[in-house]
Design a protein that fits this description.
The complex is a heterotrimer of chains A (492), B (285) and C (305).
Chain A lengths: L1 H13 L1 H25 E6 L2 E6 L1 H22 L3 H21 L7 H27 L1 H8 L1 H30 L2 H26 L8 H18 L3 H23 L4 H21 L1 H4 L29 H4 L7 H26 L2 H11 L1 H6 L4 H27 L9 H14 L4 H17 L7 H15 L24
Chain B lengths: L2 E12 L2 E12 L3 E5 L6 H8 L7 E7 L5 E3 L5 H8 L1 E3 L12 H7 L2 H7 L4 H4 L3 H21 L14 H13 L5 E5 L7 H18 L2 E5 L3 H7 L2 E6 L2 E6 L1 H6 L1 H8 L9 H8 L8
Parallel strand pairs in B: 3-8, 3-9, 6-7, 7-8
Antiparallel strand pairs in B: 1-2, 1-4, 4-5, 9-10
Helix pairs in contact in B: 3-7, 6-7
Chain C lengths: L1 H31 L6 H22 L4 H28 L8 H22 L4 E2 L8 E7 L2 E6 H23 L1 H11 L1 H6 L4 H27 L1 E2 L3 H16 L4 H21 L5 H15 L14
Helix pairs in contact in C: 1-5, 1-8, 1-9, 1-10, 2-3, 2-4, 2-8, 2-9, 3-8, 5-6, 5-8, 6-8, 9-10, 9-11, 10-11
Classes of the chains: A mainly alpha (492), B alpha/beta (285), C mainly alpha (305).
């Protein structure tokens, strides 16, 4: 088998070298042309005037990497999958080790990452091709079932995953690692947002580019209600969710008749309108300065403060502990964990109810739904409202965690990040959202210098995933109801 | 017998184009009424008016249930027609929910019934026993029809993975799962092989005889039309040119002219005369 | 009256720029039915290439304004057109037959990518042109201490827009390329069967849209004297609004829509509140899509069942 592949590859290579070199050269030529203005020259601010400097060294380095990368890709296609994959794997590993240890300073960090990403892509592609070519049909079937495999594994691993999530604070206390809890809170906030948006995008198939608006409504609702009316977090939470859902209905009602791509643009417009209103309506939102001193949640009425006001008792005193700011963080961590779990439970449950099935049916074919007596507008509206409600809950949590909110936290980029989590994870896949949130939110936190390139990578990944697997990385769907034919003795 | 559907003076214009021009006919309960005519005669447009996808320019479409409820379809929205007037339809180019399983397709068709049973989701969320019972009943209805269509073994597969003929049958039984009073089928036999066509005929006659509803059928395949219809309406260029029993329509010179052009002295091509004669030949010969 | 006239001039100048961008949206939508969400960022890239060209020309000592402007224009159009071509080739062509949402998500990804690409390479801060190469103007009217100015830049904007519109109308209506484009718009499969090179026609559509966006980017730079990596997002949304308002798919519609959006924005800022000018643009987008999705000059889409 291997010999045959190698022989075939050799035959393909015979006349192919010139062809491949020409192809790689033309890709490199286009890259040079694309890169000359923006990579080759650098605008710098110098004493309030703009000046230009040259950067041709980086330009040629980048183009050389692109040339080699393209050649590598062609070679993989021509049967050299294994050597290319081994080489690029070694290269990426070496880079990772070096970069992590900072043993070798990279002259241009951006180019270092660029090289690494290209090498890693080639490695993945190379091994993928190699195993596909050598292992035959069985592997192909397994490849197609990646999403199925992961979601099946997720079912068995759920208790384990929950256990890990629950025990993060214990680890943090023992290792005295405050960052772990903060990071956990951040990731679970995005997981919750991703699950909320998944109802709208993944199940109902409505592309909502303004999801952050509902997040903002929830956050401002909590901030205002808790400051003005003195309501506690748990009293305000349902209010925030209800208000966000109401906004969802109000915004959704006129626009849900629109076709998918128009709907996307209109929701984007609504998101921006809400942000601009928050920015300018000083009486309500305190404008760009934002709202500070938002009450933090207490543990059944017991505050997490170092020095409680006269006549009350603080958390650490009540439990006889030394004061630590980590107590509150841990409490917040469990709040968002519970909120996220409730979102997940709700989504899994509602998928198996008529309304959930109608959402998915609408995503598949709206005309057929109308012919079956399903009211498309109302059905979409419920999806919109429920998604908005979860966004509102997450917003209230965000406000109480930060203690400060301003309109700048709710821009389009935030919507794009949440959308990226849903899309990359696999639309409709709950576990996909978890994995995507960990990778996309946690990744940049681990590799600090990745932060700069995070949005760049988001954009590139969204394009790549759409081209490679338009349904999302882990898209997989199990029927919500089964006949169980075998049990009834029917024909298999 | 009740007049299930009465169409009076139905006219639909798109700008200057008259797609349907003053068409009147009636369809009876427990009968199969076929609408035939050359391509572009306006057959599908009539369906789209009946099921609320287009609003007729002029005309009245009255549906009367056997129990006496009366609906003016031209004033109703598409999904309301399906829900309350109980008119179900299929489409010329099959419209299933391809990513959902066959069984899910049939359960979605019982949406309104199940929504009520789930207390508009609230009772369903907490797992109320009444909802569980309703869901079991919905699955039972689905498997009854799956059995009828001979695809019970594929119930848990994606609808999009079924062979073409099975997809056609699935679309019909999905419409039947809405428990309609009038079933509108848009070219159900298109693209089927002779064996599948025979199975389709059987299914349609079963629906008419056992479920006692009216069926409205658009079809080009004369072996289907002539064999199973009780009544035929012929359209040409948006107008009704003939209306009556299969035998009467087959003999109507206007119909022959519409299908074959103006030259009346020209002999019928053999395959056409065979098709037109199919009704006269006993089945199975 | 004088104040009104001044706002009218300002609104038309701004609207002409929106119109130039909107043509790119409308042409792409017309031919492949997708919203090229990254088009606003192509406009931004055009502006950046223009300012870089300007700076390099300054280094080379080419300061004679007409020559400098012509070279800037040529450089900006050429490189931006290449960006437009590459965008289509990389992000959209592989998705041509996969529904509506996948290309839109890919386009959003491309938009995010381009913004951050420029931000990383050129920095997040505003880039200023310094002394504007074109300044001065004509005083049209002087009443009660308020003088109505028509700057030379505004004249250039309006004249070049009119010329480009005329050229494009000619191109679409009479050349083979224009005929191929219209054929692809009607029925892509049939056009392919009749020997139209569909891939090439679509690629050229992107190239043309990007060229106009480059002109708009350069004009924007000269008009405001400043550019940043984020400018494409808002300008892009407004130009898209213009394309929808005019009737997406229609070239004169895009121009008309652009002028209207420019006028609305300027008058709204002048007479109501500058803070909410973006709300006005988004509000119009929502209202048009809800009440008249075919726009002012668009053809209705008949739903096929």
């Amino acid at each position: 088998m291997q010999k045959a592949v190698a022989a075939e590859a050799g035959a393909r290579l015979e006349g192919g070298w010139a062809e491949m070199l020409r192809d790689a050269a033309s890709v490199a030529a286009v890259s040079i042309a694309l890169a000359i203005p923006l990579v080759g020259f650098h605008l710098i601010d110098h004493l309030s005037t703009t000046q230009v400097e040259f950067r041709f060294g980086q330009l040629f380095y980048a183009v050389a990497v692109i040339f080699l990368g393209r050649l590598g890709l062609l070679l993989i296609g021509a049967g050299w999958a294994r050597p290319i994959a081994s080489f690029t794997s070694a290269l990426s590993l070496a880079w990772l080790v070096n970069s992590a240890a900072s043993a070798v300073p990279v002259a241009y960090p951006a180019l270092g990452w660029f090289t690494f990403l290209l090498a890693a892509t080639l490695a993945v592609r190379g091994w993928h091709t190699f195993y596909r070519d050598t292992a035959g049909a069985a592997a192909k079937a397994r490849q197609a079932g990646l999403g199925a495999m992961v979601s099946r594994a997720a079912v068995h691993l759920t208790p384990f995953l929950v256990l890990v999530a629950v025990s993060v604070p214990f680890y943090a206390v023992m290792a005295d690692d405050k960052r772990a809890v903060d990071l956990g809170i951040l990731i679970f906030t995005y997981i919750m947002l991703g699950w909320g948006l998944n109802v709208v995008v993944g199940l109902a198939g409505l592309l909502d580019l303004g999801y952050v608006a509902f997040y903002a409504v929830g956050a401002y609702c909590y901030a205002i209600v808790s400051i003005e009316l003195g309501l506690s977090f748990w009293e305000s939470l349902p209010l925030a969710g209800a208000l966000a859902a109401t906004f969802g209905v109000l915004l959704g009602f006129p626009v849900l008749r629109l076709r998918g791509d128009y709907l996307a643009i209109v929701t984007l417009g609504f998101g921006e309108i809400i942000r601009i209103i928050l920015l300018n309506w000083n009486e309500l939102s305190n404008g760009p300065k934002g709202i500070g001193n938002i009450p933090r949640p207490g543990f059944f009425g017991i505050a997490f403060t170092a020095s409680p006001p006269e006549g009350s008792i603080a958390f650490h005193e009540y439990f006889g502990l030394d004061y630590s700011p980590m107590h509150r963080q841990i409490f917040l961590y469990y709040i968002i964990l519970v909120l996220a779990m409730v979102t997940n439970w709700f989504t899994l449950r509602i998928r198996k109810l008529p309304i959930g099935r109608a959402w998915e049916a609408l995503r598949e074919d709206e005309t057929a739904c109308r012919a079956l007596g399903i009211n498309p507008t109302n059905t979409k509206l419920t999806a919109f409202a429920i998604g908005a409600m979860f966004g509102g809950f997450a917003g209230a949590f965000f406000a109480t965690r930060q203690g400060f909110i301003s309109p700048e936290s709710f821009n389009f980029l935030e919507s794009a990040i949440i959308l990226a989590i849903v899309v990359l994870g696999g639309m409709g896949s709950q576990i996909g959202v978890v994995i995507a949130a960990i990778v996309l939110i946690g990744g940049p936190e681990w590799f600090r210098d990745l932060e700069l390139y995070r949005m760049l990578a988001f954009g590139a990944l969204m394009v790549a995933i759409m081209i490679w697997r338009p349904q999302g990385l882990l898209a997989h769907r199990d029927p919500t109801i089964r006949l169980g034919v075998a049990g009834r003795g029917g024909t298999p | 017998m009740t007049r299930l559907l009465v169409v009076e003076h139905l006219t639909l214009r798109f700008g200057g184009l008259v797609a349907v021009d003053d068409v009147s006919f009636a369809a009876e309960d427990r009968q199969i009424t076929a609408i035939i005519g050359p391509n572009g005669a306006g057959k599908t447009t009539v369906f789209n008016c009946l099921t609320g996808f287009y609003k007729p320019t002029v005309g009245r479409l009255t549906l009367t249930h056997p129990e006496g409820h009366r609906f003016l379809l031209e004033q109703m929205e598409g999904h309301v027609i399906a829900k309350t007037a109980r008119v179900a339809r299929t489409f010329q180019n099959i419209r299933l929910f391809p990513g959902m399983s066959v069984l899910e397709n049939l359960v979605v068709a019982q949406h309104n019934k199940l929504m009520r049973a789930s207390g508009f989701t609230l009772a369903g969320l907490v797992g109320a026993p009444a909802y569980k019972k309703a869901e079991r009943a919905a699955v039972d209805l689905a498997s009854y029809w799956l059995d009828r269509a001979g695809i019970v073994g594929r119930a848990d597969d994606s609808a999009g993975n079924l062979p073409y003929g099975a997809q056609r049958r699935l679309e019909i039984i999905r419409a039947m799962c809405t428990e309609p009073k009038l079933l509108c089928l848009d070219e159900p036999a298109a693209g089927l092989n002779p064996r599948e066509t025979a199975e389709l005929n059987e299914l349609l006659m079963f629906i008419r005889d056992e479920h006692k509803i009216g069926v409205l059928l658009i079809e080009h395949d004369m072996s289907v039309v002539m064999k199973i219809s009780d009544h035929i309406v012929v359209l040409d260029y948006g107008r009704k040119i003939s209306d009556g029993s299969p035998a009467a329509v087959r003999a109507d010179p206007a119909v022959i002219r519409a299908y074959l052009g103006e030259e009346e002295d020209e002999a019928l091509p053999p395959e056409v005369s065979k098709d037109l004669g199919a009704a006269g030949v006993p089945a199975g010969s | 009256m004088a104040y009104f006239l001044q706002q009218l001039i300002n609104g038309l100048s701004l609207g002409a720029i929106f119109g130039l961008i909107a043509i790119g949206y409308t042409m792409v939508y017309g031919i492949i039915g997708m919203i090229n969400f990254a088009h606003g960022d192509i406009f931004m890239v055009g502006g950046f290439i223009a300012i870089i060209a300007f700076m390099v020309l300054g280094l080379l000592g080419i300061t004679w304004v007409p020559l400098a402007l012509l070279v800037m224009l040529a450089v900006a159009v050429a490189f931006t057109a290449l960006y437009g071509w590459a965008l289509e080739r990389v992000a959209y062509r592989p998705l041509r037959n996969s529904g509506r949402l996948a290309p839109l998500i890919s386009a959003i990804g491309m938009s995010i990518f381009l913004q951050n690409y420029v931000q990383l390479l050129q920095g997040a801060r505003n880039k200023a042109l310094g002394t504007p190469p074109i300044s001065g103007g004509i005083t049209l009217m002087d009443s009660a201490g308020f003088s109505v100015q028509l700057s030379y830049m505004q004249i250039i904007i309006i004249v070049s827009t009119v010329l480009l519109m005329a050229g494009f109308t000619y191109l679409i209506n009479t050349t083979t390329l224009g005929r191929n484009q219209r054929a692809c718009e009607q029925d892509m499969r049939m056009a392919r069967l009749l020997g139209v090179d569909v891939d090439r026609t679509i690629a050229l559509t992107f190239v043309m849209g990007a060229s106009l966006a480059a002109v708009a980017g350069m004009v924007w730079l000269l008009y405001y004297g400043i550019i940043d990596f984020y400018v494409g997002f808002l300008a892009g949304i407004k130009a898209f609004t213009a394309a929808v308002l005019g009737g997406i798919g229609s070239l004169p519609g895009a121009m008309l829509g652009g002028l209207l959006i420019g006028l609305i924005e300027v008058f709204w800022s002048a007479y109501f509140s500058a803070e909410y000018k973006d709300v006005a643009a988004f509000g119009i987008l929502v209202l048009v899509l809800v009440f008249r999705p075919t726009g002012l000059l668009g053809k209705p889409e008949v739903e096929k069942v």
